[in-house]
């Protein structure tokens, strides 16, 4: 396959832009089952999807094209000739992580108030106990979930169960 110069420049530019994404940066989407949900999701469940971008590393190395010509006394007649090659390697591929979240109907003011108290008890939330899922509450949810491998401000069902906010089904 032959690539044209403009195409190569565009590919390198896109690759360098994706390489500038900070490690661990993610994007999130919220879905209802039946729309864009993981396979086997229950129809009445809600899901969050965390997309972690690929990590791309640029590797440059020199390839020997012609060795140096050296006399027996050490005099160099012609230095070695090298060619520089650059390529991009995917260190970690893009990953989509699905996690079940509480649906909007389940995030009642009473539950959110309990969530705020649970986060405050863990010294993760310092706001008022308003019962609203505001920016400070979402930031505290992220601080709670990040050490567990979920960098999201959407309250996962697993985190709600860990804090004793939602009953664990048998």
UniProtKB/TrEMBL annotation:
The keyword Signal is assigned to this record: yes
Compositional bias ranges of the Low complexity kind: 33-44
Keywords, sorted A to Z: Signal
Domain Peptidoglycan binding-like positions: 110-151
InterPro entries from the UniProt entry: Peptidoglycan-bd-like (IPR002477), PGBD-like_sf (IPR036365), PGBDSf (IPR036366)
Positions of region (Disordered): 24-46
Domain of life the protein comes from: Bacteria
Bilayer-crossing regions: none
Signal peptide: 1-21
SUPFAM superfamilies xref list: PGBD-like
Gene3D superfamilies reported for this sequence: PGBD-like superfamily/PGBD
Protein name as catalogued: Peptidoglycan-binding protein
Organism: Parasedimentitalea denitrificans
